[in-house]
Amino acid sequence: MNAPLHILLLDDDPFMLDLLQDMLHSLGDFHVQAATAARDALAVLPGFRPGLLICDLSLPEMDGIEFLRAVASQGYAGDVILLSGMDSGVLRAAQLLATAQGLRIVGACGKPLARSELAGLLARVQGTA
Asked: What region holds the Response regulatory domain (predicted)?
């Protein structure tokens, strides 16, 4: 039996974190850790070792792009799903920048993220799609 996928959520909106956690738990057996600040997520990253990072782009103090740059510099080798309430052009630009940093982006999604879209992305991450 495979160990549950470790997923690190980063969003400054506690309601969005709760919504994502509820969706993830309804979709499978995942070990989920959530952070509302990029610096907290960076501190958790080495010990938690997530296979998937779900990251909002619009964050206070350190934005999502800066966070992803820091994640890449730590050698993060897992998958990334980008979230944003901004327009699709911002998501595409962030996806290109993150990919250029060596990160593996499996999705760049608008908020709120639909449960069916999350399910499809998880299937890709787990190799079942």
From this structure: 6-126
